Structure to design on (336 residues):
């Protein structure tokens, strides 16, 4: 959407770092004798709240560690899509990522955070994730070789397409909608009667432009920062799900930091997360006004009750999964 992070060994080559100089006054935060370099990948375009927050995280870590931890940020899927970055983190090739529930590939419970119409906004979701639900997910991620640092916002999601306004679920019939490779999103749109296709976000603009798919779903900030409105005139405010942006670190890279370094990284992720959520909230409000004022864009509300009714079966389906007990705990915590 547009109008809106290894020891200095072989991995440093990923960013062309040939070596490192010794620090004259090594902060007590680290036991290493050279700066520790951490690569931080994400999929958002420049100017997106996630991109701004990632850069802020890197700056905070550099300042608080006295330069002993050097975070290099690479956005816009430069280091691969969510699943590719997940694999790279689990093997220690990539230090960190902040992406849209990609870890659901190894921790399927994560996808349940996107149950249809469960959260009204990011504040409600982050509140749930700060309790026992977050603790359960932390443990699951740890078992997958990942350390959960913070939960950022990936927004309340809406539908865009090039054909017509979407006001009722039936309006989606006959349309092919791009979704991420997220089982929850796929289930939602299949329940609504749409065809689905999984296309990398970095390839989405061209896919929409060429008619490979008719539409897609994303928060307003992503629609704006990637200029999707240029190829999808119709913006329908479905608010069909909230999606998290878990900020994760490779457990192998995490182990290279001493306790103080770990504290710095974790607190920086939380601080940058507050900025990211705030920027997302502000941007969505502004973007909605900008879109409505743009004669080239058609914005419409949807029949939310009809959409909720059409997607009720998704809750039943997910409670039947092997981790159904977690889904029930999640629903209870969210009050739905």
């Amino acid at each position: 959407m547009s109008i809106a992070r290894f020891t200095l060994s072989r991995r440093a080559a990923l960013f062309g770092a040939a070596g490192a100089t010794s620090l004259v006054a090594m902060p007590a935060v680290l036991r290493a004798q050279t700066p520790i370099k951490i690569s931080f990948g994400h999929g958002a375009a420049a100017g997106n709240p996630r991109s701004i927050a990632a850069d802020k995280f890197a700056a905070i870590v550099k300042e608080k560690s006295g330069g002993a931890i050097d975070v290099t940020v690479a956005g816009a899927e430069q280091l691969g899509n969510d699943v590719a970055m997940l694999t790279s983190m689990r093997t220690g090739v990539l230090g960190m990522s902040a992406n849209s529930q990609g870890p659901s590939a190894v921790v399927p419970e994560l996808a349940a955070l996107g149950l249809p119409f469960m959260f009204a906004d990011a504040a409600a979701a982050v509140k749930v994730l700060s309790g026992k639900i977050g603790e359960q997910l932390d443990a699951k991620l740890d078992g997958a070789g990942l350390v959960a640092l913070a939960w950022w916002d990936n927004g309340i999601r809406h539908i865009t397409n090039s054909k017509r306004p979407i006001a009722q679920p039936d309006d989606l019939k006959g349309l092919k909608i791009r979704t991420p490779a997220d089982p929850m999103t796929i289930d939602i749109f299949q329940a609504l009667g749409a065809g689905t296709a999984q296309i990398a976000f970095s390839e989405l603009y061209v896919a929409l432009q060429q008619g490979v798919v008719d539409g897609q779903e994303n928060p307003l900030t992503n629609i704006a920062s990637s200029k999707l409105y240029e190829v999808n005139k119709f913006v329908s405010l479905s608010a069909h799900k909230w999606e998290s942006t878990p900020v994760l670190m490779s457990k192998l890279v995490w182990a290279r930091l001493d306790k103080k370094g770990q504290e710095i990284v974790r607190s920086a992720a939380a601080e940058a997360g507050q900025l990211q959520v705030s920027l997302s909230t502000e941007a969505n409000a502004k973007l909605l006004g900008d879109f409505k004022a743009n004669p080239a864009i058609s914005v419409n509300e949807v029949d939310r009750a009809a959409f909720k009714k059409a997607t009720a079966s998704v809750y039943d389906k997910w409670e039947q999964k092997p981790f159904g007990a977690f889904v029930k705990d999640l629903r209870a915590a969210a009050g739905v």
Notes: Residues 10-334 form a domain with the D-Maltodextrin-Binding Protein; domain 2 fold (CATH 3.40.190.170). The beta strands are 36-42, 69-74, 96-98, 146-161, 176-179, 195-198, 215-218, 234-250, 298-301. Residues 28 and 330 are 40 Å apart (CA to CA). Residues 259-293 form the longest helix (35 residues).
